[in-house]
Description:
This protein is mainly alpha-helical. The protein is built from 15 helices and three strands. It has one domain (2-350). The chain starts with a strand and ends in a 22-residue tail after the last helix.
Amino acid sequence: xxxxxxxxxxxxxxxxxxxxxxxxxxxxxxxxxxxxxxxxxxxxxxxxxxxxxxxxxxxxxxxxxxxxxxxxxxxxxxxxxxxxxxxxxxxxxxxxxxxxxxxxxxxxxxxxxxxxxxxxxxxxxxxxxxxxxxxxxxxxxxxxxxxxxxxxxxxxxxxxxxxxxxxxxxxxxxxxxxxxxxxxxxxxxxxxxxxxxxxxxxxxxxxxxxxxxxxxxxxxxxxxxxxxxxxxxxxxxxxxxxxxxxxxxxxxxxxxxxxxxxxxxxxxxxxxxxxxxxxxxxxxxxxxxxxxxxxxxxxxxxxxxxxxxxxxxxxxxxxxxxxxxxxxxxxxxxxxxxxxxxxxxxxxxxx
Length: 351
């Protein structure tokens, strides 16, 4: 039984929150501190203030991790430029800065995993497993990152790869046992593969990539222009996290019944694999400074458009985007007609 617009469901004579549990758990320390400071979490104004604070902390940590990852390939000045452009020209700005989604901490933990795998600090396998399971609890799609992290580590060490599997499943079993005390299905319904069902995956694939209101390459056009540059001197292993993970994630979200991410700006559901896209760009930018001025010009223009869409429209004109959602997505006609996502005259970013 679903209620409250699908946010709650009934199981074992109790009502539970339907969406991922991770953000609620990770936010508990912030809520505790807020209560000590006399903030009232039942007051909507106070709740929003704490949510905004959590979002700010989370996004600052994500940006710092991007700088750290960039420093693995470039100097500090260039790392700052690349990280800033990527953050403000992608869904990291238009989605993660807009509200406390279940994506916020999932993306943070994913960046932690990528950084740990690249730098290999002491006990990096254990820490990778911890952040992978935390990411999974926040967003079940992060389980894909576990698979590709395993393959990435396997190329270097079978023993370390098996240790990752062992640690991860130990944490997963603990999570499952905890959930089984409350839910008749073991895991909460949102985490079950059975909810992934879409009869028109082709429409979802086109909608999530090239449609004017949810298309990945429309809202972040610089991603498409990256392929104008030559791919050379690249290690094969970077494809694992940089290419295969985002592609599989895209195919996964296309199986969602609501593949357009409901009341969101652009392809919100794709934000979970932004660390993989960032890794790809760091690799491809090694060939940015080639002597083709036309390609460089196209690339720079696409960056300006991406920043305009995600940081100006996605942040400062977000009320117009919300109006688009209410006008086009709340009607019953959407249940049978997806054409609204493909109408350039009604593109969300133009609203």
